[in-house]
């Protein structure tokens, strides 16, 4: 496993992060989830990403149990705050001072740790003053509950203002967690250049486009049983934007490129995101240990320039690159 610094900080994290969105506490049994975490550790992954909203806090609990007994100093544990949790009351969501202070304590209990290495604003909260949010983050950093602060799916302008306030308050905003893959490149136009300027690194999610870039979905064929596209708990809804014959057909054309590089399709997809020097780590998810080992092997891979050009040529206009799509990620109102 190779490691990179996260943003302009001294924190090193593994190039591949294990994340448990849509799996732990919902799609797979706890025993299988633990097996995936053990496989991650065996593969050299030291960084683990979760969120309190995943499976309404259950995912954090499962991860905490799976990591019990590991040397805490050898791990980087990330979680997030924003989405509705618990009974989903009127203050059980968002980035208010009240919710942040209560949410971090709940996350620490579930993760069975005294601190998290990175605490992330899961989305931008349009209904809470940003000054209030950043002051709350500053307070929990000073309390020792959080070492570093990051965000997820913020626009370039939001990153700039958040970074300014963090600097004034005496702590670092070091990361952003956006969706990023060969098919979804909306951060490249504005978010990445701004992040480079500010010293913010990307912790990217869905580098395999929810499984589409593995090539397992073939135009005109039935969906594989048990796949993300058949999951009625949220997975199918997330993946539907890519489930058309044009996209799926072009993905099939990536197979010779992967083969020429002696990579699986998943490895090619993960490695592609890591060619961006503003990307610190790519988050992988898995329902089986063998998937973890396959994806983790993308760390340290260099894709030659000619292969990168061939990928662009194959995918052509099915790639989504509009920077404005980041605005769609954060809800404009907090709804309980």
From TrEMBL:
InterPro entries in alphabetical order: AKR, K_chnl_volt-dep_bsu_KCNAB-rel, NAD(P)_OxRdtase_dom_sf, NADP_OxRdtase_dom
Keyword field contains GTP-binding: no
SUPFAM superfamilies for the chain: NAD(P)-linked oxidoreductase
Molecular function GO labels: oxidoreductase activity
GO CC annotations, alphabetized: cytosol
Oxidoreductase listed as a keyword: yes
Keyword tags: NADP, Oxidoreductase
All copies of domain NADP-dependent oxidoreductase, residue ranges: 16-314
Residue stretches in coiled coil: none
Source superkingdom: Bacteria
CDD domains: Aldo_ket_red_shaker-like
Family: Belongs to the shaker potassium channel beta subunit family.
Name of protein: Aryl-alcohol dehydrogenase-like predicted oxidoreductase
Phylogenetic placement of the source organism: Bacteria, Bacillati, Actinomycetota, Actinomycetes, Propionibacteriales
